[in-house]
Amino acid sequence: DELVALFEHTAEQAASRDDRIDLLLKAGRLWAEKLDDRDRAAQAYSRVLEIAPGHPAALRFLVGYHTEHEQWDKLVALYEDALRSRTTGESEQAMLLQIGMVNWRMRADPDAAEPYFQRLRKVDPMHPGALEFFREYYTEKGDQQKLSQILSDAQRLASTPEHKVTLAIEVAKNAENGRN
User: Which sign does the torsion angle of CA 29, 31, 37, 39 carry?
Assistant: First the structure.
């Protein structure tokens, strides 16, 4: 307890940004691993993200913490901050996928997820997670035309003949369903 208090107090006084981050990370690890207080660890890691948005270790801990506590709003905000900061080792695609999946699956809000999957599709039109989302999303909305466009875009970029054929068949079936 005394050591973690020292780390936190010293972090407040530290002159350099890197020293503050290092001390807060140490405090967070002590809270989580030695003192078994994940709530206090989350506070320390949140302070790290205030200084360095998207810091990989702090982000990793807080993603797990908010997921464990089913704090979906906080989880989405965490990913959005990391996405804006672009200082994280996580790729933009991974962040977009995570935000989209939390909104779609955890919050059951596909309309909130749709812009993130659209952004993911712009980066990677063949992304399996995005295609899965759009299949369900536009089928539920009854917008076969939009789904066919997305699948056609993916088909044009497919790298193997087998994948092109599979997507072409899906586009054809989708068009047929749209006429019925």
Answer: negative
Residues with Cβ within 8 Å of residue 56, at least 6 apart in sequence: 88, 89, 90
pTM recorded for the entire structure: 0.82
Token output for 161: 């003949």
Give the pLDDT confidence of 89-135 residue by residue, as tens digits.
Answer: 457 888 999 999 999 999 999 999 999 999 999 989 999 999 999 99
For 86-95, b where at least 16 C-beta lie within 10 A, e where not — what string?
eebebeeeeb
